[in-house]
Amino acid sequence: MDVANVFVSIGVSDHVNGCDWWSTVLGRGPDRRPMPSCCEWDLTDRVLLQVLDNPKQGAVDVVSLRLDDLDAGIARLRGEGFSIDDPQKVPGFDTLRIATIADPDGNTLNLLGGE
C-alpha cells in the first residue's frame, strides 16, 4: 500500500470556534477550507489536520503532536491564555515528556517533546 497522505479529523460542535482554537494552537490559520464545514492544515508534507463542523464526523478525539521545542510551544500557548500543566516525563522513555490540553469539545491534544 502506497499512502500519499494521512488525514487526522477532529469533529467540533462550533466550527468557527473550533477552527479559531486550532488556529491559535498551531500559530496560523488553516491552509485551506475545502468545503464550508472543514478547515485544514498541512502539518507535514503528508499529514493533514482537519477540523469538521460535526463532532460525530471526527475520526479521532486525540491528537498528539511532537514538537521540536516543547517548552517554547507551551510558553507560546500560555501567552495566548491557555492553561497547561507543566510537562511530565513519560515512563519508559529517556527524555520524552507530555503536556495535555483539551479543545472546547473535549478533544485531547497531547504535546510531546523529546525522544
**CATH architecture identity:** Roll
Query: What number is the mean pLDDT?
Result: 92
Rg, rounded, reads 14 Å
Helix content: 10-25%
How large a portion of the residues is in β-strands, by DSSP E? Answer: 25-35%
Major beta-sheet overview: 4 strands, mixed
By CATH, the topology is 2,3-Dihydroxybiphenyl 1,2-Dioxygenase, domain 1
Total tally of structural domains: 1
Structural class, please?
Answer: alpha/beta
End-to-end gap: 28 Å
Return residue spans where pLDDT drops below 50 for at least 5 consecutive residues.
Answer: none
Question: Describe it for me?
Answer:
With 115 residues, the chain is an alpha/beta fold. The protein has a single domain (6-113), classed as 2,3-Dihydroxybiphenyl 1,2-Dioxygenase, domain 1 (Roll). Helix content is 19%, strand content 35%. The strands form two sheets. A four-stranded mixed sheet has the order 1-4-3-2. A four-stranded mixed sheet has the order 5-8-7-6, covered by helices on one side. Strand 7 (97-102) and strand 8 form a beta hairpin. It starts with 5 loop residues before the first strand and ends with a strand. The model has no long low-confidence stretch (mean pLDDT 92).
Task: Provide tags for this entry.
115 residues; alpha/beta; 2,3-Dihydroxybiphenyl 1,2-Dioxygenase, domain 1; 4-stranded mixed beta sheet; 35% strand; globular
Topology:
Blueprint: E1 6-11, H1 15-26, E2 32-35, E3 38-42, E4 47-52, E5 62-66, H2 70-79, E6 88-89, E7 97-102, E8 108-113
Gist of the model:
The chain is of the alpha/beta class and 115 residues long.
